[in-house]
Amino acid sequence: GNSVTQMQGQVTLSEEEFLFINCTYSTTGYPTLFWYVQYPGEGPQLLLKVTTANNKGSSRGFEATYDKGTTSFHLQKASVQESDSAVYYCVLGPADTNAYKVIFGKGTHLHVLP
Amino acid sequence: EAAVTQSPRSKVAVTGGKVTLSCHQTNNHDYMYWYRQDTGHGLRLIHYSYVADSTEKGDIPDGYKASRPSQENFSLILELASLSQTAVYFCASSGSSGNTLYFGEGSRLIVV
Question: Please, which residues have CB within 8 angstroms of residue B96's CB and are 6 or more apart in sequence?
């Protein structure tokens, strides 16, 4: 069945360090892939999305490449800031246009130390 | 900008009581969703709807009912609240299948 795996439950970095959050997925077809970010006390919000395989999405300094070959959609940022502290969710969209459900990974809690 | 509002934002309910969480969207979206968030589980889908007067079961529907009386409104109903339903609940809407989800700010429910 369809699934999303985020193995890192928590990541702690200092400011200006490089961020890498691992995400792999399992599905058939060519779904849209998303990264959502959730700040404390708020609902999740879209960070970036990529609709086409082997393309890259970017937003606010974050990047992710939709790699159909390795079924990965890792999130990266060259230099994190304390304000990036949040929970990050990798999300798999439906590949079938008749399907309605997206699938969330379990989330990665990023702590950035000043 | 997309707007999804939830009420109440916080509630304490007694075990066995009835709880209704409401969601209103002004995005003109067809799709609406209720998610539950627990530490260590991320977001889990309870019910969703793609048209008024129709709802569908998500991954964890047991103990919950949903109602979609209009395109704008989607309610989550706990007929007999239990301790295990203590959680934060999020409503979301989207314009089409697989499109971006717009979330509300969440409703924190504590069942005592």
Answer: B30, B31
Mutate to test the interface with B, among A98, A104, A108, A109 (most CBs of B within 10 A): A104
B66/A contact by beta carbon, under 8 A = no
User: Mean pLDDT for each 10-residue chunk of chain B (112 residues)?
Assistant: 89 98 96 90 90 94 98 98 98 85 96 98
Query: And the tokens for B93?
Result: 């809407």
Q: Strand B31-38 to strand B4-7: parallel, antiparallel, or no bridges (unpaired)?
A: unpaired
A93 interaction partners in chain B (CB closer than 8 Å)? 98-99
Which pLDDT score, from 0 to 100, does residue B97 have? 66
| B98: nearest CB among A36, A44, A102 | A102
Q: Are B49 and B66 in contact (CB under 8 A)?
A: yes
Rounded mean pLDDT, A76-95: 94
Write out chain B residues lying below 8 Å of A8, CB-based: none
Q: How far is CA B34 from CA B7, B60, B101, in A?
A: 13, 10, 11
How far apart are alpha carbons A78 and A59 in whole angstroms? 12
